[in-house]
Amino acid sequence: MVRSVLYVSLALAPATIAIHYAAHPGSTADFVLAAVALIPLAWLIGEATEHAAHHTGPGIGGFLNATFGNAPELIIAMLAVSDGLFEVVRGSLIGSVIGNLLLVLGFSLAVGPKGTLDRRSTFTSLGLVTVAALAFLIPSVPGFHSDPDRHEIAVISIAPAVVLLILYVVVTTRELRRHRQLHVSDEQEVMAGWSLTTSLIVLAVATALTAVVAEILVHSLKDFSSRAGLSEFFVAAVIVAIVGNAAEHGGAVIVAHRGQIRLAAEIALASSAQVAVLVVPAITLLAWTIKPLALSFRPVELGALAFAVVVTGGLLADGRSGRLRGLALITAYVGVVVAFYLAGDR
């Protein structure tokens, strides 16, 4: 049923593009339509990469997931960089990491059965996010009381980004086979099995549509946030972050509802770590082809990230899942959302 709805809702993407260019409905309608249209596109990209992984093997399949699974976030971030919306970029990225840790994992535990989690995988992911948070301090501290976007901070951001990318490659190489076997063994029963050619064509078309829809979203974000009475940072850190991670969000919760709580937790935790040590540094380096991006996060962002890691680690320390733990994580996310709302723009 859910898959049928997602397939039908893919029509929202061309409809959004047509309405934007033909009817010019205004920034609010553009933003809402684009945000909703990105959700099924994100799911389709995730679906295509999983199908492709069945033909390419775990190594290349993992690379495809890392590259295209986060395509919506990458595209949104690069378009925001091009528009000079650096606070939007940083907000959406930090919101993505926190959203996966607290919101996605929380809903997964809340709707799934009690069970045991993979403690090694859990704390590997949390460890990666912790290292990333410490690395973010290097360029962030100089921007606390001065211009956070000055060129010197963008230069300082390069070294932490390179270190995090190397860390991602090393850890992923070691863990990839175990993780990919877990995903394939659990998903093979429910996937129809597209050919590699079909998977790559779907991937290319979905990514192209995502780029166009994301451009509409980014270009309407500033005016939408003003009309809605919300800060650009809040819109980016909460709304855009949730939309950009729609594939992981929906996939983890659905898998948990089916009773596969260990796999669901793996999706949420691994996605959070992947954004922190792969997507953030990748965008930082790629941004130099457009405009230098400084990883100068605010204290409220770094504090929220540390809070998310501590809460998640504390609740999962014994390697067991439970609905009350899921509700606690969701409550913690609500607290972060309130903090982001009160923080406003820098």
**Integer-rounded radius of gyration:** 19 Å
Query: How much helicity do the residues have?
Result: over 70%
The overall pLDDT, averaged over residues, is 86
Structural class: mainly alpha
Q: What profile does the largest beta sheet have?
A: none
Number of helices: 15
* Domain tally: 1
CATH fourth-tier homologous superfamily: NCX, central ion-binding region
First-to-last CA distance = 43 Å
What is the strand tally?
0
CATH overall fold name: A middle domain of Talin 1
Strand content: under 5%
Give start-end ranges of low-pLDDT stretches. 183-191
The CATH architecture would be Up-down Bundle
Q: Write down the CATH class.
A: Mainly Alpha
| H and E order | HHHHHHHHHHHHHHH
* Overall shape: globular
Written overview of the protein:
The chain has one domain (2-343): A middle domain of Talin 1, CATH 1.20.1420. Helix 3 packs antiparallel against helix 10 (196-228). It is an all-alpha fold. The chain is globular and about 50 Å long. The protein has helices spanning 2-9, 12-23, 27-56, 58-68, 71-82, 86-111, 119-140, 151-156, 158-187, 196-228, 232-244, 246-257, 261-286, 299-315, 323-343. The protein contains 15 helices and no strands. It is 81% helix and 0% strand.
